[in-house]
Design goal:
single chain; 311 residues; mainly alpha; Serine Threonine Protein Phosphatase 5, Tetratricopeptide repeat; TolA/TonB C-terminal domain; 2 domains; two-stranded antiparallel ribbon; 11 helices
Length: 311
């Protein structure tokens, strides 16, 4: 039986077998590119003031790269297909089949958030069994589904499931019970094992917890909470959001554009008050804008003010 276990929402029946199949992993990071022009282009795609034909051209370029095997382009294209274009006029319509095509491929090559998006996609189409399989795959590779009963993780422990993951598993479990009952654990296990057998090597080779890896995004810009950081009551605790941040020469955030959010994109701006308070080092006056990616995925210890570490 699939069970909801208080603050740690886990599939207890799967614990032992999953732990045996999937030993602990380490994060593999691709070598960063020399430029972050890709991020500048992504910021332009998310900018409502950019003409539709330019935004369409950017998307088509990513789609071509995705079809040629670029994992990060697959993740970006699949994410946009899943949520649909939020800017009028739309240059990309929501397309669940195309989202599934690109996100499942990205998931099979190590983009962990693609696994979560596959779970949300299947749940939104009322396919709770498929959603549960993807939820378990996501939890396993994040290290949150284990044969342990931890009562105190301490602060900022990567082994602690995030609030979003707990909520995802709760929602998937409830819908699965409502529609299918409690007799499908063996099916979930079989499909989970099949995914591992087919893709584990590729997943671990390209493993990246955030959606877009440094190989595509360029060298990572170091930033932290601004010295003037004020406490923020993030209105939605159990949401995951992805942002493209634009830093000016003085180091503050000039623009914060949401790229995606889970469970859905509609409420992405709920985290704007948090991400707009980050700060990077000052740059030369002649320097161009600098770009960074930020994923907001809170744990209990991060509430209510959000992460307070360097990023």
């Amino acid at each position: 039986m699939l069970q909801h276990a208080c603050a740690r929402v886990v599939c207890r029946t799967l614990f032992v077998l999953i732990a045996a199949i999937l030993p602990a992993s380490t994060m593999a990071m691709a070598a960063p590119a020399a430029t972050n022009q890709n991020l500048a282009d992504l910021a332009r795609f998310l900018d409502a003031s950019v003409p539709a034909d330019q935004r369409r051209s950017l998307f088509e370029g990513w789609r071509t790269a995705a079809l040629s095997g670029d994992t990060d382009a697959q993740y970006i294209v699949g994410s946009i297909y899943r949520r649909g274009d939020s800017i009028e006029p739309h240059v990309v319509d929501r397309d669940a089949d195309q989202a599934r095509r690109f996100l499942s491929t990205a998931a099979g090559h190590g983009r962990l958030l693609a696994m979560a998006k596959m779970a949300e996609l299947e749940l939104s189409e009322d396919r709770p069994l498929e959603a549960m399989i993807w939820t378990q795959i996501y939890g396993v590779y994040c290290g949150w589904v284990r044969n342990e009963n931890i009562t105190d993780y301490g602060e900022h422990n990567e082994r602690e499931p995030t609030l979003y993951f707990e909520d995802l598993l709760r929602r998937v479990t409830e819908r699965m019970r409502q529609k299918l009952g409690n007799q499908h654990t063996d099916v979930v296990l079989a499909q989970l094992n099949a995914f591992v057998a087919a893709h584990d090597s590729d997943v671990r080779t390209g493993l990246w917890r955030d959606g877009i890896a440094p190989h595509w995004a360029g060298a990572r810009l170091k930033f932290e909470n601004a010295r003037s950081f004020r406490r923020v009551q993030v209105p939605i605790r159990d949401m995951l959001s992805e942002w493209v941040l634009v830093f000016g020469v003085e180091g503050s955030v000039k623009v914060a554009e949401p790229f995606d959010a889970l469970p859905n994109f509609v409420k992405a701006n709920a985290d704007h008050g948090l991400v707009s308070q980050y700060e990077a080092a000052r740059a030369d006056r002649s320097a161009a804008d600098r770009y960074a990616l930020k994923t907001v995925d809170l744990r209990k210890a991060d509430w209510p003010i959000g992460p307070v570490r360097e990023h």
